[in-house]
Amino acid sequence: MITVIGLGFVGLTTALGFSKKGFKVYGIDIDESKLAKLRNHEIPFYEPHLDEVLAGQLGKNFILDASFEDAIHDSQAIFVCVGTPSLPDGSADLTYLLKAIEEVLATGNTNFQTIIVKSTVPPSTISKQVVPFVKEKSSNGQQIGLASNPEFLREGYSWEDFIEPDRVVIGVEDDRSREILDEIYKPFNAPVHYVSFNTAEFIKYLSNTLLSTLISYSNEMSMVADHIGNIDIPSAFKILHEDKRWAGTPASMSSYVYPGCGYGGYCLPKDTSALDSIAGSHGYKTKMLSANLEINEDVKNFLIDKVKSELDTSEHIGILGLSFKKGSDDVRLSPTRDIIQKLLDHGFSHIVAYDPLANKTFAREYNFPIQYADSLNELMERSNALLLLTAWDEFKDNAEVIKQKKLFDFRYAL
Ligand SMILES: NC(=O)c1ccc[n+]([C@@H]2O[C@H](COP(=O)([O-])OP(=O)(O)OC[C@H]3O[C@@H](n4cnc5c(N)ncnc54)[C@H](O)[C@@H]3O)[C@@H](O)[C@H]2O)c1
To answer: Which sign does the torsion angle of CA 391, 392, 393, 399 carry?
Structure first.
């Protein structure tokens, strides 16, 4: 029913996990020494719990002795879990992945089968490389579905993470593959998210690059602190962890890991600049902090480019939200200020704005040649395209109405 190709950390855990859930699973690897160990009930690497599961499943649901052809012929789902190491230029080496897929196709099996890429591959790999590769290499009559199913397990906890996943992500673009994967993941009591190939692939990198970014952020901060001197670095980090934004479900920290139109308000812009500056004056030139400040400007230019590419300057633009975040009337260094300034600079002269709290403070603080609406309804009447810049609940509550107009949801709120 299932074949798993590549029995490393991910593949072996996957194969044993599906076996434990009651599926018949064929395990395939090109490494004979690895197979010999597994046949001997030995796990070829350190990973708790896998030995007990292997002992219970080998020769029952988990089969190592079938030929490649028989395994593929008998399987509706083929999980590819081979390595995708880095090439010297940093890109992912897809040689093992494509080789494994080619071997599957070479069996010439004509039953409908889904090849599921569990290996980590950069976004657009399936759509731009695997789809054409399968088309080129498959013979007449072969019916191949494709899916992306990135794996989030952590080494050392691979069994727990696989068997009790916090979420399952499946990139799939055909119904038969989706049905097969639905069946396979039914016994797992976890939310299953069906998305496009690119989205599924991207989520894995979103996750790992966040982790690597947090580590590099922490390391850069330790170097900033060391240059400034007399800072107890481990205590500072441990006290940071007591911030209540880390706790709760979902932790309110998650609102910071969400895209928008840049940070603003009284604290984040000035404090980020100030730490960047004092690090420089102590002889440490920051990379992440200075990139962070640059990105805060880049994102506004990116949004303006989007508006310019889709709207004529004669359009009547409605601005939804002026304060730097919902629940506040603070407009100091609000990204809205820069965005409105840039719109005016690019010749957009019909701008009307509405904020549930901050119309007056904004008008007082910035002397822009724009108009203000007293209600959402009035704003809707007076504009033919909308830019959502603050994620107020009132806008979410009126999403259907707002979406009737051309909308740029720059907070990804609706
Ligand atoms: N290790 C992790 O914690 C982890 C977590 C999530 C995702 N991933 C991703 O999963 C993929 C696999 O990672 P891993 O750590 O399990 O790798 P690994 O190197 O431990 O295992 C890969 C296995 O594939 C086998 N293989 C290679 N080509 C083959 C072929 N044509 N046919 C059969 N077997 C073949 C290799 O012999 C090896 O046993 C990678 O893309 C990795 O980035 C890894």
So the answer is: negative
43 Cβ below 6 A of ligand 1: no
Please report where in the chains the tokens 């190592």 appear, as a residue.
64
Residue 114 has φ and ψ, to the nearest 5°, of -110, 130
Report the CATH fold assignment for 2-197: Rossmann fold (3.40.50)
Query: What whole-number percentage of the chain has pLDDT above 90?
Result: 97
Amino acid at 401: V
Domain map of the chain by residue range? 2-197, 292-409
CA of 11 to the centre of ligand 1 (A): 6
Distance from C-alpha of 220 to C-alpha of 227, rounded to nearest angstrom:
11
User: CA 278, CA 377: separation in Å to the nearest integer?
Assistant: 47
Give yes or no for a contact between 359 and 372, defined as CB atoms under 8 angstroms apart: yes
pLDDT of amino acid 251 = 83
Q: Please identify which of the residues 267, 274, 291, 295 carries the catalytic annotation.
A: 267
Mean pLDDT, rounded, for 76-91: 97
For 320-354, the pLDDT digits (tens) are 999 999 999 999 999 999 999 999 999 999 999 99
Q: Active-site residue 81, yes or no?
A: no
